[in-house]
Amino acid sequence: MKRILLGTTALVATSLAASEAVEAADGVKLGIGGRYMGAMGALAIDDFSASPDPSNNLRAYVFKQDVRVYFEGSTTLDNGLTVGARIDLRGQSDNKDQIRDVYAYFKGGFGDVRFGDTEEALAQTCYLVPSASALFGADSPNFNFSNAGVIGFGATNGTCYGVDSHSTKIVYFSPTFAGFSFATSFTPDNTEDTRNTVNGAATRPSNDLGQNSENLSVAANFNHDFNGVKLIAGGGGTWSFQREQAAPPPGAGNPGHRDEYNGYAQVAFAGFTFGAAVSDRVNVSNEIDNTDDVVYGAGGTYNWEAWTVGLGWTRGNYDNIHGVGTTDKHDIVSFTSAYALGPGIELDGLVEYDNYSGAGVGDSYEGLGFGLGTLITF
Q1: In whole angstroms, what is the distance from residue 209 CA to residue 187 CA?
Q2: In this structure, are residues 117 and 193 in contact, taking their beta carbons and an 8 Å threshold?
Q3: Which residue has the higher pLDDT, 148 or 94?
Q4: Do residues 234 and 264 make contact, with C-beta atoms less than 8 angstroms apart?
Q5: SS3 of 267, please?
Q6: First-to-last CA distance in the chain?
Q7: Which domains can be identified in the chain, with CATH numbers?
Q8: How far apart are CA 187 and CA 216, in angstroms?
């Protein structure tokens, strides 16, 4: 609660400062940027233990792309306060929102306050298991080619997902003191694109089924360079203090509040980067008690001139996917590479092995995939 008060105090101070400031002569100037990701992948091994074999109806190759365009404008007032807004637009239409992030921000010596649809403090400050590629990897990749999701929890592992995604919230980032910084956020409920309403509840119901509400997220980070050796360490937690639950199956217990914790560490020197990360997602299921997902992993990369290569591994332990008291395991070993063709342009490669061990009969998977893709930032 103390961190909430600190963030609120900073916001009030920001509002007072803004009301007294004289706007810069040019006002807010809009800029445009973004990135394009595209990849093609293929599977040399796609082995299911299930019968009949699901791979009979699956292609052994795929093309994928992911495009984001952002619009951002800011101005610095005469008193030094920077005020701006950012909108991130998805390049593809799917079942997700077309707008990913949309928020206003206020920056100054007090830190950075953001208000709008954006990720929570834990998700915005974390570091993943190192990967040479911005596209591929063993931890939360943008693209993967595993079909483990056909029979199991998911096709990949991740150590930094968060609880409430891009719900409307307030986030505070502190200044950095001797390498230390922290962030905190508060989210009323899992609602995005909040607008006014002319009928119904203007403040929204508090009993939406499956909602994670009153979410508090806190994260801390240490980032410092010791004579050419860079050390990064940190972690965070998100607590959902209210949750409208579905009726659990008989004997499954009453699921508790949804929480998440993560931690990470990295050390970099002479072109090498080594790191590890871990995540514990508590009470993931809305119906079954004590359904925890624990994901951890480690890896390293090496960079020389325009080249970067990396090797990473993650393991995901997923509770109760195939019934109460069961645990599925997913191991991923990923070799990644990246070649900088020019400023903001790179070519990435992937060789990845997946092994999913399901607790149910016929719920195992083994795959060997290859990928080639490009990242273009603009």
Answers
A1: 17
A2: yes
A3: 148
A4: yes
A5: strand
A6: 40
A7: 2-197+204-377 (2.40.160.10)
A8: 7
What the block records as the tokens of 102 is 């949309």
Position 132, amino acid: A
Cα R_g (the chain), whole angstroms: 22
Could you tell me if 155 and 365 are in contact, meaning their C-beta atoms sit under 8 angstroms apart?
no
In our burial notation (b when 16+ CB lie closer than 10 A, e otherwise), range 239-255 reads bbeebebeebeeebeeb
| Angstrom distance (rounded) from CA 334 to CA 331 | 10
d(CA 367, CA 354): 5
> pTM for the complete prediction?
0.87
Residue from 135, 139, 132 nearest 333 by CA? 139
Q: How many residues does the chain have?
A: 378
pLDDT 10s digits, 18-69:
444 444 446 788 899 999 999 999 999 999 887 677 878 899 999 999 999 9
Question: Quick one: which of 88, 73, 86 has its CA closest to 24?
Answer: 73
Asked whether residue 230 carries a pLDDT value surpassing 80, the answer given is yes
Work out the number of other CB atoms within 10 angstroms of the CB of residue 219. Answer: 23
Alpha-carbon gap, residue 327 to 5, rounded angstroms: 40
Question: What is the per-residue pLDDT across 287-323, written as a single tens digit (0 to 9) for each?
Answer: 676 788 999 999 999 999 999 999 999 999 998 777 6
Give the integer Cα–Cα distance in Å for 263 and 221. Answer: 10
Contact 264, 312 (CB under 8 A): no
* CA-based nearest residue to 21, from 90, 76, 63: 76
Q: How far apart are CA 103 and CA 24, in angstroms?
A: 21
H helix and E strand count, the chain? 2, 16
Bond prior to 52 in cis (omega within 30° of 0): yes
Which one-letter amino acid corresponds to residue 106?
A: F
CB atoms inside a 10 Å sphere around CB 66: 17
Query: Residue written as tokens 């919230």?
Result: 169
Distances (CA, A) of 39 to 84, 149, 350: 34, 19, 10
3-state secondary structure of 238: strand
Rounded to whole angstroms, how far apart are CA atoms 348 and 306?
12
For residue 129, which phi and psi values (nearest 5 degrees)? -60, 130
**Which H or E run includes 8?**
helix 2-20
